[in-house]
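Researcher: Please predict.
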Amino acid sequence: MNQTARVDSEAFLPRPPGAIRRWVAAHPRAIDIAILVCYLIGAVPLALLDVFTLYFDRVQGNLVAGAVYSLIVALRLAAGTVALLLRRRAPLLGFIIVTISLVSDGGPLLVANAVASWFLLYAVPVYRDVRTGWIAYAIGVAASIINAYIPDIEPVFGMDTPAVTIANVILDAIWMLAVLLIGINLGNRRRYLQAIIDRAHQLARERDQLAQLAVAEERSRIAREIHDIVAHSVSVMIALSEGGARAIETAPAEAANAMRRSAETGRTALTEMRRLLGALQMSEAADMAPQPGISDIPGLVRGFEDAGLKVSLSDSGLRLDDRLQGLAIFRVVQEGLTNVLRYAGPGARVDVTLAEDAAGSTITVRDYGRPANTVGPTTGVGSGRGLAGLAERVRVFGGTIESGPVIGEPGWRLRVLFPRAVTSPAHAVSNEEG
């Protein structure tokens, strides 16, 4: 019943609108390849026309000059190809590359590379941010001004007058501004929708976590009640049994009465315990399994991989005889991967290392930040009690915990050290028994 309700609630979580838009978002590599193929279909014939014009119109048999011009054309074609390959991962760098290829270019390939530069200018605010988009626009306008006053290496279209040159620069600036504004509008809308979707999914996960916490708190209360029942009833039964044993020869009736009261106390305790244990019954068989340990970490990792993380597990053969410390190590890895999924999001890369040396057992969970071209983490989604509770669990075993961003590199690192020759403390066991 609970599983069905969870599936039904997940079915109504928001997702990006439009089936075509969702397909495009789900197949970025296919879109990139299609754009590159379209570019090459138009650029390669223009490049060949460029080379043909150079050899048979302007070079006029000069093989050295023809080879130099052909190399320039090939470099410009390669620049457009590389720039489009960087369209999603590094759009600003790609825009700069294709903009440089347009300097002093008056040949037919100018058309294809100009279109590629518009694609790159559009991609900057979509895959980065608005500020970077305006930087790219400033670079494009500056390059247009510089290009207007540099003689073309391949002057196919002739020389322009100063008035025509200024008009061309203004038209280029207006056209690039239109492309930039379209990219800013679509990029902001995309980031806004992604933030809403991330927030909705985060709230759904928090709802499930709060429900699990409520169940855990109720079970803890029931466990305390069972403890009270057992402690009280067993104490009474012991006292009645000892009293009956002493009175069995001098007062057989009193002894029999004491034994009957002891039996009634036991039956009452058994009834109450059955009632409370019935409340602890779970519908899922997995919940009846023993407490997890180190051997269950690979299964835990596979679960987070199914959720979208790219997890690399490195285990140097860590094995412990202490079951409770193994449970603590399992919880460290679980909390670390949960935080990566919560704040870095699906697609994030994370390394989990289990190592053992003379100092003890070291557990490291290291991620590399949110993947490129995804919205940043939603703020205010965590209670802040996860790492605090983890620190308390580690402290019980005399261990140390370090967590924080990696200096000079992207991502976050959680590192926990359990000292060697430290087993479950006596007071931890006594807390469970008392």
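Model: The chain has three domains: 16-159, 208-287, 290-433.
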